[in-house]
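Hello Y.,

Per our agreement to keep a running log of every chain we model this quarter, I'm adding this entry. I've kept the format consistent with earlier entries: sequence first, then predicted structure.
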Amino acid sequence: MVTEHGFLALTPQYTTTSELLSTSAYRRGMDVEVLPAHGGAGTATERRGGHYYGGPAFAARVVDALDVALLEPSDDWLATLPYEYTGRRIAMATLGEARSLSRPAFVKPPSDKSFPAAVYASGSCLPTGPELSLDVPVQISDVVTWAAEFRLYLLDGEVRTGSQYATFGRLETERLDGHRYEDAVLEFADDLLATSGGGLPSAVVLDIGLLATPEHGAADQWAVVEANMAWFSNCYAADPDRVLDVVLRSAGPRTQIAERDRPFCQNIEDAHLAG
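Predicted structure for the entry above:
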């Protein structure tokens, strides 16, 4: 178990993951501070060595005061992967361009939650509203069915822990350790990380799945679902202690960010990293 100094800052909204991470942090001697719903970071502003877990909208209000850097996978990482790792066509576009789609497609904003990620019958069915800019980036992919989906917590290019979180789109959690697909999941992840892991931050969540209708009748076709921020991900049945290791790296003090992670820090400038 990695021992970290400092404290873990949590948003005021309760989640089962925040409770599990709190318990794990206390167990290793860290302080845990629940941030106020209003008024920024509250008394945490006066502290150093902070780490963050919570949503991106709340993060935008407090991470500068906490002096925390957030690691995020790039919006286009999934679209750059070879077909053998995705099992479907994936492209980046703007929301305006996506509105011209004439076929069903899975459309989502890559990192924020500006509109629901879902299968849309056509581009005309995509959400509209004054808050949705036509220039906002979106990810468009073929519609597929996932027989099983797994969440993996990665640290320095290795799987630290994981969990099944769904079968055929229904929530169904189960630890990766001892799972019937454990070897297949880890084999696929290791192969992917060996070829494309350099495009991800050192601490990140990777979701992969088993396609229900593999191409050309293949017995088991594994593919990447998406990559996510570890500091804003449900841990499901994964080991909370190992999840915390990844979360702490993914949203920690700006002065501790490694050189390789600079491209994945969306909320810092080089001046913050000079130390």
